[in-house]
Design a protein that fits this description.
435 residues; mainly beta; Jelly Rolls; Immunoglobulin-like; 4-stranded antiparallel β-sheet; 5 helices; binds zinc ion
């Protein structure tokens, strides 16, 4: 099976065993060491001379058997969030592991080779869509259709944000190559908000008052959900509860195709960052049914996560390592100042005069790059199509830097954002620091 999750930095081992006829009926363990921070283990059994030989396959970890597939499979994998049926879904502990073989039938000498691939945890961009619906609310698509559509769009994760219901989070089938994040869109009569990462973050959606909304949000937070205010400046369902009444950590800056409502939210987010708030921008298509304009992954939220799992992706969102792009093809923005990345806070001394802002851009069709800070639009440049590595000297006195890429949207026939980064935050330290 071709699994995109295994990257070039995987560790590959080959274990060989020559099994003679006298050992028929014996369980044979081929041991291997698993280092710290391994995301996935893949095992493939190759029996060199199949004729008259039957070798069964299983796997054990440091604390016991992980699973058994007998003669039914030649290839299996385990991860903390998913595994081949027959194998336990558990954290991958470092230590001594073993491929367990059963020499069920052996004629003469049977030579076997076992390939073990281990994927170390390592930060890389994972693309997905944080907002979509299924027939568990008001979309015509079943969960399996949503999953097929998301994979066809090239997405690597999705969040199932059906309106006011949790049944989708119980019903979906875990996928080998698509991470599904349990979610719900709290849909009140006066505004919407996504809750991510928990199958049932609150008991009852029926908010009739501000106090009800605050109660549901507090309940979701206590249950560990990440909560974003959705399309808060939408013409039809804006956040009528009053944005100033809440301390949202996440905001859906980009909902579906780029529209005026998104621009209003972008401006509002900029103003909130200017007030010193640490608010992370997210995006999602809000795809319901067939629609010429609204597409899976339009926009795509790229997350720099160390693990392709709900925990890995949500953890990276919490850190703010997210960049929103118009499609799964990008473009992609990464930022760095003094080793600090998007979402991080860099402490700067009052004495430092300038900082180097390093910008990496991939797959841009060309257009304008706009650098925003707590000063507003700090500067802009025209960039050609392609990849770019740029360094700019910036003032340390601003409380954040972030980037927007604008270009021509062929479908909308308009000049629109193609990507929006999250900020690197700056905090001045020094004798006279006022925090
Ligand atoms: Zn909504
Ligand atoms: Zn929605």
């Amino acid at each position: 099976m071709n699994k995109p999750i295994l990257t070039s930095d995987k560790i590959t081992l080959t274990l060989k065993e020559s099994i003679s006829e006298e050992r028929q009926g014996e369980y044979i363990t081929l041991h291997f060491d698993v280092p710290e921070a391994i995301e996935e283990i893949n095992v493939r059994l190759i029996v060199k001379n199949e004729k008259g030989n039957t070798i069964d396959l299983g796997l054990e970890g440091p604390s016991g058997m992980k699973g058994w597939s007998g003669g039914a499979r030649r290839s299996i994998f385990v991860r903390e969030d998913r595994a081949t049926p027959g194998y336990l879904i558990e954290e991958i502990d470092p230590g001594k592991w073993g491929v367990v073989l059963n020499a069920y039938k052996v004629k003469g000498v049977c030579n076997v080779e076992v390939k073990v691939d281990m994927q170390p945890e390592a930060p890389r961009w994972i693309k997905g869509d944080l907002h979509m619906h299924s027939n568990h609310s008001d979309s015509p698509y079943s969960l399996s259709e949503v999953i097929v559509n998301a994979k066809e769009a090239g997405l690597e994760y999705i969040a199932l944000t059906d309106h006011n219901t949790f049944s989708q989070n119980e019903a979906f089938e875990p996928q080998e190559d698509l991470v599904i994040i349990p979610a719900v869109e709290l849909t009140t009569n006066r505004g919407h908000s996504n809750f991510y990462g928990v199958k049932k973050p609150f008991n009852d959606f029926r908010c009739q008052s501000m106090a009800d909304v605050k109660h549901v949000i507090a309940e979701g937070e206590a249950n560990g959900a990440l909560i974003s205010v959705n399309h808060p400046h939408c013409d039809h369902c804006w956040w009528e509860w009053g944005l100033e009444e809440f301390e949202f950590d996440y905001v859906e800056v980009w909902n579906g195709p780029w529209r005026e409502r998104n621009l209003r939210t972008l401006h509002w987010w900029q103003s909130q960052l200017g007030l010193g708030k640490r608010m992370i921008a997210l995006g999602g298509s809000d795809k319901h049914g067939p629609d010429e304009w609204i597409k899976y992954g339009g926009p795509t939220t790229f997350i720099k996560a160390s693990k392709h799992s709900p925990e890995g992706i949500l953890g990276a969102i919490k850190e703010g390592r997210a960049c929103i792009a118009s499609s799964p093809e990008g473009p992609l923005i990464d930022l760095e100042i003094n080793g600090h990345r998007m979402g991080e806070t860099l402490l700067v001394s009052e004495e430092s005069s300038y900082l180097d802002l390093h910008v990496t851009i991939e797959s841009f069709n060309g257009g304008r790059m706009k650098v925003y800070s707590s000063d507003g639009l700090s500067f802009e440049r025209t960039l050609n199509q392609g990849n770019h590595r740029l360094t700019f000297q910036v003032k340390p006195s601003n409380s954040f830097y972030r980037i927007e890429l604008w270009g021509e949207d062929k479908q909308l026939q308009d000049f629109t954002p193609q990507a929006i980064s999250n900020p690197i935050f700056l905090k001045t330290t020094g004798a006279d620091s006022n925090g």
